[in-house]
Amino acid sequence: MLKYGLALIAAPLALTASLPATAQQSPADNLAKISTHLRAMSTMTANFSQSSRSGQMLTGNLIIKQPGRIRFQYQKDAKMLIVGDGKALTLIDYEVNQVQRWPIRNSPLAALLNPERDLSKYGKIIPTRNPAVLSVEVSDPKRPEYGVITMVFSKKAGAPGGLSLDGWVSLDSKNNRTSIRLSNQKFGAPIANSRFNWTDPRKKRRGKR
Which of 3, 10, 139, 196 could make an S-S bridge to 172, C-beta 3.0–4.6 Å? Predict the structure, then answer.
């Protein structure tokens, strides 16, 4: 289970990359729209489904609080949790009592969790068939080991910056691919920082971190 989660945080969502393009606005304009959305999105909750190339599927609930906080609460039988506390991403596997951490900046999720990141330097618009859908691939050419993330957004009135995140694909340096699809997205609700606490399975008496 731990290996399955690693692909998510160490790895892009090419949901629409193979579709033919219909030019609507310039790539620079679309990058600016996505940046505006990420800066305006203070919090988000959603349901998610996660799939890998092997065909394994997991579901759960996602919480994001900018900047840098994220929580993937997986279905109960998965016994796995991924939490970002603003500085690091932590993968907790309760099945084997194992914990691993990475700086957020070393993960492709940095593109989602750092609203101030300059997408004009790291992002590339991926053409889509639907003018109401925007897709951006983000990677650091100087740091290929950080992986690639391709995020997909749909235009939605009332959502931050007029966009709603539909999902992403993560691809790591070992070509491990994980797709996340979101549903029931909600924005702007107050979320306590305590929602990003986690219980360390390695030391039962340590309590919550």
Answer: 10
Task: Please check whether residue 144 is in contact with residue 161, taking contact to mean a CB–CB distance below 8 angstroms.
Answer: no
At 8 the pLDDT is 56
72: tokens are: 């993937």
Place of tokens 């699809």: 181
- Ranges of the chain whose pLDDT falls below 50: 2, 4, 10-23, 205, 207
- What is the Cα–Cα distance from 202 to 186, expressed in whole angstroms? 34
Q: Quick one: pLDDT at residue 5?
A: 54
Rounded to whole angstroms, the Cα distance separating 35 from 31 reads 6
- Please provide residue 160's backbone torsions phi and psi, each rounded to the nearest 5 degrees: -55, 125
Q: What span, in angstroms and rounded, lies between the C-alpha atoms of 172 and 145?
A: 7
**Residue entry with tokens 């639907």:** 130
What is the pLDDT at residue 102?
Answer: 86
- Distances in Å between the alpha carbon of 196 and those of 51, 102, 135? 23, 16, 28
CA angle at 45 for the pair 181 and 62, rounded to the nearest 5°: 55
